[in-house]
């Protein structure tokens, strides 16, 4: 869905909206919202009308605040019901981002969440480097592929050819993922992961 097909916005988009849009694209979500420490919407992207978007985000923010008041640090809450699944994830200084997922979604890409967490934090000027290490260390990338095998990596207007060194075995719980140890045209080596939705990540681990 393009921006022109979305419900009319009630505020001008900020750079946060592009990050939230990419989060939805990589997870199959249809609405993502950045909220402040009072549960107010900072910016959003999605298929809901602005009022419903703000209500959805505020309700998750209230749930998150309630959990924090009882349990202390709560980094993430995942909610699943018969109609929808939802996740809210903490950011520095009391901020958080909320994501609405498809019906009966039982999980969400940890790589997509970690990437959005990092990008939103950096865009907001939060002290990312002082935060605890994320659960995964990777970055989303655009890949040209054939038969689910990587051919080249898009880098701006250029495309770097990929030499596949070998396959990487996925853990049993992630058997639908595909991993490739690769060498890029510029000499960089890394591990490319293709998730079930066809989204690619370059692992930053050596």
Radius of gyration: 18 Å
Q: At CATH's second level, what is the architecture of the largest domain? A: 2-Layer Sandwich
Which class do the helix and strand fractions yield?
alpha+beta
* Widest β-sheet, arrangement of strands: 6-7-8-9-10-11
Report the β-strand fraction as a percent range.
25-35%
Which percent bin holds the helix content? Answer: 10-25%
Q: CATH homologous superfamily of the largest domain?
A: Dynein light chain 2a, cytoplasmic
Q: Low-confidence spans: pLDDT under 50, at least 5 residues?
A: none
Fold and architecture overview:
The protein is an alpha+beta fold. The chain folds into two domains: 3-127, Beta-Lactamase; 138-203. 24% of the residues lie in helices and 35% in strands. The protein has helices at residues 15-27, 50-71, 110-124; strands spanning 31-35, 41-46, 76-80, 85-90, 96-101, 138-146, 149-155, 158-168, 178-184, 189-194, 200-203. Helix 1 runs antiparallel to helix 3 (110-124). The longest helix has 22 residues, at 50-71. The N and C termini lie far apart (36 Å). The mean pLDDT is 89.
